[in-house]
Specification:
single chain; alpha/beta; Aspartate Aminotransferase, domain 1; Aspartate Aminotransferase, domain 2; seven-stranded mixed beta sheet; 16 helices; 42% helix; binds pyridoxal-5'-phosphate
């Protein structure tokens, strides 16, 4: 508590203009931000510009950025190749609601990365990708209910705004989680079409499928639960889900909005060698432009031909497709993966060494270039473990102390992970670890108090 007072005071002192602009924005925009996740106490940073690996705020502070647009920025900010390609496209028109040749080029780039993908449709966000994937999945299986994993986030539409951050007291039995709706305005009748299952417990999932036989038509998973600090699947969990989906006639969706093109060129499907029926994508496929996609097997995607609706004025506009093609062809090259994955190892070693030297209880979960720091020695298996073991207060101290040192270690909130971009270098990682060395003794003291 004592630490927080000094950390918060320093943050306030460094960022008075952000505070002023936040207050002003609150008079015009609910919560003063464009997406409610962006608000935090005492006030969020207002950013003036973002270039390379740095965010520059309105008070003249710079932050080495590992938030990277909530994982969308694997290219780093304003990557020259993407900027150049998009600038050229700007002159040729940004939106025409007629087909154009970039459609095939962009779809082909995604198909090269996901073996299972025969056909692709484009969207404008991760939310749209999961929403449409769920509809196509239901159309394919002919059954209405969705099975969703407790703790996973799949965007902001009615079918998935549940059991993401519910308090333990509302969450029911760990093997049979209760459905906890986390937004007003979601119709009860819609919520009743969603069942909730625990992560990393195949028997429990099977029981729920069995109890809803002939009703559950779609299963959606984040193949790594990126919104529970990178909780990986254990053993053959993802493959086990594949087999259960086949047995129960359920369409299997990977939400690769955060893992896609990041944990491996072909996302988690490649990394874990598991084939879902559909993949929902967004974020880092688009070089910091708002583009999402749904990719899937021919027989599933052809439901769109046969009646499952998918429309959108901005879908696959030439501007974002140009960004996507450049990102996948010219930015996320084989060398780029080698580079960011090696930096990922360096970051993990750096954080873990400092924690050990300072006697901080904690560890890092990571897959290649993405990682989360956890102030607990418990290896987290699922959402219940997470809420029982995480020290939110200490994590806030860590996060704001790093901001005060000029590093944004990951998006705000203990359940998030860093993104290392292709523009980061070894020096950037070493600077980050130096910053952590500066704040670690006080964190250790706070943890032990
Ligand atoms: C796994 C996952 N799915 C879907 C989404 C929603 O994506 P968007 O914010 O682009 O709507 C997110 C956003 O963070 C996400 O992490």
């Amino acid at each position: 508590m004592q630490l927080w007072e000094s950390v918060e005071a320093e943050y306030r002192e460094r960022t008075p203009t952000s505070r002023k602009l936040y207050r002003e924005a609150g008079d015009h925009v609910p919560v003063g931000v464009a997406s409610s996740y962006r608000a935090w106490d005492p006030h969020p940073l207002f950013i003036d510009k973002a270039q390379g690996v740095y965010l520059h705020d309105v008070d003249g502070n710079s932050y080495m950025d590992f938030d990277m647009n909530n994982g969308a920025g694997m290219s780093g900010h304003a990557h020259p190749a993407v900027t150049e390609a998009v600038t050229e496209q700007l002159q040729r028109g940004t939106l025409f609601t007629h087909p154009h040749k970039l459609l095939t080029e962009a779809a082909t780039e995604l198909k090269k990365r996901w073996d299972l993908v025969d056909k692709v449709r484009f969207t404008n966000s991760g939310t749209e990708s999961t929403m449409h994937a769920i509809r196509i999945a239901r159309a394919y299986s002919g059954k209405d209910k969705l099975l969703k994993i407790e703790g996973s986030y799949h965007g902001c539409h009615d079918y998935v705004l549940m059991s993401k951050s519910a308090p333990g007291r509302l969450s029911g039995h760990p093997k049979r989680p209760a459905r906890v709706v986390e937004s007003e305005g979601v119709p009860e009748k819609v919520a009743e079409t969603v069942e909730i299952a625990p992560w990393n417990d195949l028997d429990a999932v099977e029981q729920i499928m069995h109890d809803n036989i002939n009703e559950i038509g779609a299963l959606i998973v984040e193949p790594i639960v990126m919104n529970v600090a990178m909780t990986q699947p254990h053993g053959d969990f993802l493959q086990g889900l594949r087999e259960l989906c086949d047995e129960y006639g359920i369409t299997y969706i990977f939400d690769e909005v955060k893992t896609g093109v990041k944990v491996a060129p072909g996302g988690a499907a490649e990394y874990y060698d598991v084939e879902p029926d559909l993949v929902a994508m967004a974020k880092s496929i688009g070089g910091n432009f708002p583009v999402g996609a749904i990719g899937g097997k021919e027989e599933v995607m052809e439901r769109i031909d046969d009646g499952a609706a998918h429309y959108g004025t901005y879908n696959g506009n030439p501007l974002v497709l140009q960004a996507l093609v450049t990102q996948l062809k010219d930015v996320l090259t084989e060398d780029a993966y080698e580079h960011v994955d090696a930096l990922g190892e360096r970051m993990v070693r750096g954080y873990e060494d400092v924690m050990e030297d300072e006697g901080i209880v904690g560890h890092v979960e990571h897959v290649n270039s993405q990682g989360s720091i956890l102030f607990t020695d418990k290896r987290i298996e699922n959402y219940r473990d997470w809420i029982d073991n995480i020290d939110y207060g200490l994590h806030e101290n860590f996060w704001f102390s790093m901001l005060n040192q000029g590093v944004m270690p990951h998006p705000h909130s203990a359940d998030q992970q860093w993104t290392i971009s292709v523009q980061h270098t070894e020096e950037h990682i070493d600077e980050t670890i130096e910053a952590f060395k500066n704040v670690a003794p006080k964190l250790a003291e706070e943890q032990q108090s």
